[in-house]
Amino acid sequence: MGEDQSLIIEIELVFRASEELAAETERTVNGEIAAAGGALISRCRIPDIAYHAILARLPVAAIRQIAERSPSGISGLDAVMHIRPQSVALPVEVDDTGEQAGLIPPPPGNEEPILAILDGVPVSEHPLLRGRLSIDDQFNLEPLAVVEERTHGTAMSSLVVHGDRNVGEPPLGRRIHCVPVLGEADQFPQDRLVVDLVYQAVTAMRRDADPTAPSVLIVNLSLGNVRKPFQGRLSPWARLIDRLSHSYGILFCVSAGNHAERFDITSIATMAQYEATTQPDRATRTLEALSQLVTSRRLLSPSETVNGITVGAANIDAVSDAQRRTARNRVDPYHPMVTANPSSSLGPGFANSVKPDILMPGSREHLSMVASGAGLSVRPAGPARPHGLKVAAPPRGGAAGMEHYTNGTSAAAALASRTAHRIHDALEAEYGEQFLALSLHQRAVILKALLVHTAVWPIDSAELIRSVLGPANPRQHVRQRDNIRRFLGYGVVDASDAIYCASDRATFWASGSLAPETRRPIVVPLPVCMSGQALPHSVSATLAWFTPVQPGRQSYRSVRLSLLTSEDIDQFRVLPAKSQPDTNQAGRGTVFSRRWEGSKAPALAQNSAVELVVQREPDRGAQIDELVPFGLAVTVTMPSVAEVYSQARARITPPVRARARTR
Fold first, then answer.
1. Containing H/E element for 162?
2. What average pLDDT score do residues 1-9 get?
3. What would the 3-class secondary structure string for 461-472 be?
4. Is the domain defined by 94-436+441-447 classed in CATH 3.40.50.200?
5. Which string of b and e fits 49-76 if b means at least 16 CB within 10 Å?
6. Is the pTM of this model over 0.85?
């Protein structure tokens, strides 16, 4: 690159609470930028997240001075905290474009949207999307986006509306609110900071005066900054999501990010040898290779968010067996095991919290050869007809109704957002105004709890991670579980279980708000049909909330809730399950999930119940006086006992409001 050329960089400033000091700081930095031959492009200051940054264009000579950490340059200014290249969105991979097939149901009515997508400009007139999207082009990006290149926004909109088209699910019954934040070539515009874009987009939806989408309580964010992997410190983008979640009552579903770089499987020499290796040996060799790279395959900003749900990609898709057999020169590393795809980013999250929270289908990712000889070098293969999720595609060669295949955590996050919407639809259909009368905050945290609630560790996958990453000493079970959750989070979500009822399973939900140092008991009835039956059975409970945040302080997550049980759970003859994150680690975020299992016969009476207690712990740092809403999901199940649901439902009609009490 020549000395006369320039680059765009982001300069994050030390945050000054005083507007006068902040203005003085900005003038000083702008003066240095001008002196270096550069120019200010944009700026953003958001006091709520202690963020103040500048987007600037600098000549190569000034960039070189920054890279060399010269004290006489911009990097030597006391007011400058971080200097980074401009944020770059991770592109979505697509392949195997073909014509769209099948009947298309009519578009939905004019109900207010409850889900928004912040993504690229979609092909809104695609036959699969026509009449299903409400486009709010706040930043005038649509004119810059060539229709044939509108891949990311079209694919994610298709997944949210229809799911994987290979599955054949009905489309969502409401329009989706779309705010493009990617423009030309599916990238962030060069004249705005991404934090500023997201802040303006979300506040416009829910502002007090003239909101653009006042009913939105789910936001899909299948985006990440490939230049900002999580290194223990929360990014401004993640802090913004946390603040907006708490302020507006919005559930953000965020993609964990993908790592498609090559990696070496040194224990195998050639691709032919790798393909000939049988399971579970092939999965073991693959995981051994990835286990050496865990520190370089971290979450991508903003997926370290504390209040949002971070979604990793599981090796699941709905490709037919006939299409699966057409794969060439690519090898499936894990099947029949269900686990995280090789490219899916790994946790943990901020303060060693569980991240990713959940795994959703991201296609059954294959590996392709890069080099072989002394050892095999492979990389995650892109999506294709034999392994991918089928979605709407931009037009090709004049044909409008096109489809192609995609994969990865962006797709998984879109499916998580769709699942949250479908959970809302199911609750609305079942409870009507009783559910809709709840505040947006309460509905959002209920969706958050129910979305995570069905997530479980696949037994074979968890055991493989335990055996490869260890530690070998069984007494080190906490560290063993830490390694498992690094890959699996709380586990793989079963979308059907999250949405539909079953006769041998009863799921309860509750919501409320807690003041400082208060607790709320939740009584869960135990169906008497389970009594005396020595069959496998379980109780699982998931608690979710949005915490107020304190940027710049060690106690960033200022409110912590916990889930306690009383001794009456012993009558159900269950013990804490081993196939879940350690409860000490699970309580570090804003989701707390517990599971109890047993196979000995319970001794239950007609009025038997178990009491769970949602408790707000003492606030860390300055006391937060405001009420904190929570959502709780509890499931009681005994497979093959068909009266569980009907008996549980009879016990909760009419519903009884629980009372809060001070400890």
1. helix 151-162
2. 78
3. HHHHHHHHHCCC
4. yes
5. bbbbbbbbbbbeebbebbeeeeeebbbe
6. yes
Q: Which amino acid is at 152?
A: H
The CATH number of domain 6-85 is 3.20.10.10: no
pLDDT at residue 76, rounded to an integer: 86
d(CA 247, CA 626) in angstroms, rounded, equals 12
Q: Give burial (CB, 10 Å; 0-12/13-18/19+) of 567.
A: exposed
User: Are residues 564 and 522 in contact, defined by beta-carbon separation less than 8 angstroms?
Assistant: no
Which three-class secondary structure state does DSSP give residue 194?
helix
- CA 451, CA 182: separation in Å to the nearest integer? 27
* Measured distance CA(549)–CA(620) in Å, rounded: 11
pLDDT digits (tens, 9 = 90+) for 420-458: 999 999 999 999 999 999 999 999 999 999 999 999 999
Residue partners of 391: CB distance under 8 A and separation at least 6: 94, 154, 155, 158, 159, 162, 164, 165, 403, 404, 405, 406, 411
Q: Which residues of 230-263 are buried (b: 16+ CB within 10 A; e: fewer)?
A: beeebbbbbbbbbbbbbbbbbbbbbbbbbbeeeb
Residue 587: predicted pLDDT:
67
284 pLDDT tier (thresholds 50, 70, 90): very high
Task: Please report where in the chains the tokens 């295949």 appear, as a residue.
Answer: 405
> 370-412: per-residue pLDDT in tens?
998 888 999 999 899 999 999 999 998 777 788 999 999 999 9
Where residue 236 falls (left for φ over 0; alpha for ψ -120 to 50; beta otherwise) is alpha
> What is the DSSP code string of 59-81?
EHHHHHHHHTT-TTSGGG-TTEE
- Determine whether 106 is exposed, middle or buried from the number of CB atoms within 10 Å of its CB (0-12, 13-18, 19+): exposed
- The CA distance from 245 to 240, in Å, is 8
Amino acid 661: pLDDT: 43
For 501-662, CATH gives 2.60.120.380
In DSSP notation, 524-561 reads: EE--GGGTT--S-EEEEEEEEE---B-TTSS--B---E
User: Which candidate, 545, 548, 591, 541, places its Cα nearest to that of 564?
Assistant: 541
Structure tokens at 576: 């804490």
Secondary structure (DSSP) of 415-432: HHHHHHHHHHHHHHHHHT
Residue 190, CA distances (Å) to 119, 181, 186, 224, 492 in order: 16, 11, 12, 16, 37
The ranges of the chain annotated as CATH 2.60.120.380 are 501-662
- State the Cα–Cα distance between residues 177 and 194, nearest whole angstrom: 19
How far apart CA 537 and CA 521 sit, in angstroms, is 23
Q: What is the four-CA torsion angle of 294, 299, 300, 304, rounded to 10 degrees?
A: -150
Look over the chain and give the mean of its residue pLDDT values, rounded to a whole number: 91
> What is the gyration radius of the CA atoms in the chain, in angstroms?
25
